[in-house]
Amino acid sequence: MIKDVRDVSAHGRGRIDIITGCMFSGKTSRLIHRLKRAGAAGQPISAFKHHLDRRYSSTQIVSHDGRRWSAQAVVGGAELLARCNGARVVGIDEGQFFDRGLVAACATLRDQGRWVILAGLNLDCRGRPFWPMDEIAAIADDVLLARATCSVCRAKAEYTYRKAPVVADADMVGGSEMYEPRCETCFRLAQTAASV
Predict the structure, then answer these.
(1) Are strands 156-157 and 148-149 parallel, antiparallel or unpaired?
(2) 160, 124 in Cβ contact below 8 A?
(3) Which of 94, 177, 180, 184 is the catalytic position?
(4) DSSP codes, 108-154
(5) Given this model, what pLDDT does residue 1 score?
(6) Number of domains observed in the structure of the chain
(7) DSSP-derived secondary structure for the chain
(8) What is the spatial distance between Cα 38 and Cα 14, in angstroms, rounded to a whole number?
(9) Cα angle vertex 34, ends 159, 181, to 5°?
(10) Which domain holds residue 24?
């Protein structure tokens, strides 16, 4: 992980840093913390969220613990890239909602010497890798895997369990009313019980 945004383009190349993990693991809080550090260093910042994520605000990135950062809501990676303007630091929240164009956007921004900080889920509620997060992780310079506390046994949680039934073509965006963190054992036990 870089210590200062000035280190990013010292060699003419930017960075892609990913903060990933299950829900309620502090991904968005960590993203906001890094954006605040970059802002304190006087760096131009652009922050983005997917337009579908309206849980707390349509114009801010908001963590579950109430931290906020002003952001633009965009439809996909191409629009995000077009709106970065002169930002040296680009923050992106909820990367799992984006299209595959986010992969190309992140790579382009890094090639332009910018620091991309991307937060998002690594696994869906079935325990499968989320694209495009897995594809971006493959080209990232640093990947931080955040963990939460299992809502059942209090062990470290790596999975997001969906409490509500999965409905085809339904909006799956939600918070604690629909999802909770689970360790692998409690997640697998719930999956097995649901399939019986």
Answers:
(1) antiparallel
(2) yes
(3) 94
(4) HHHHTT-EEEEEEESB-TTSPBPTTHHHHHHH-SEEEEE-EE-TTT-
(5) 45
(6) 1
(7) --S-GGGTTTTS--EEEEEEESTTSSHHHHHHHHHHHHHHTT--EEEEEETT--SS-SSEEE-TTS-EEE-EEESSHHHHHHT-TT-SEEEE--GGGS-THHHHHHHHHHHTT-EEEEEEESB-TTSPBPTTHHHHHHH-SEEEEE-EE-TTT-SEE-EEEESSPP-TT------TTTEEEE-HHHHHHHHHHHH-
(8) 14
(9) 15
(10) 5-147
Question: Would you state the structure tokens that stand for residue 26, as one six-digit string?
Answer: 């502090």
Q: Would you say residue 125 lies in a domain?
A: yes
The answer to whether the beta carbons of residues 34 and 63 sit under 8 Å apart is: no
Q: How far is CA 134 from CA 12, 53, 119, 162, in A?
A: 26, 20, 12, 20
What CATH number has the domain bearing residue 30?
A: 3.40.50.300
Give the span between the Cα atoms of 179 and 116, in whole angstroms: 27
Dihedral of CA atoms 95, 100, 106, 108 in degrees, nearest 10, equals: -160
- Rounded-to-integer distance, Cα 183 and Cα 33, Å: 26
Q: Is residue 80 part of a domain?
A: yes
Based on the residue annotation, tell me whether 177 is a catalytic residue of this protein: no
Q: What is the pLDDT of residue 169?
A: 60
Does residue 66 lie in a domain region?
yes
Q: pLDDT tens-digit profile of 37-88?
A: 999 999 999 999 999 888 788 899 999 888 999 999 999 999 999 999 899 9
Please check whether residue 180 lies inside any domain of the structure: no
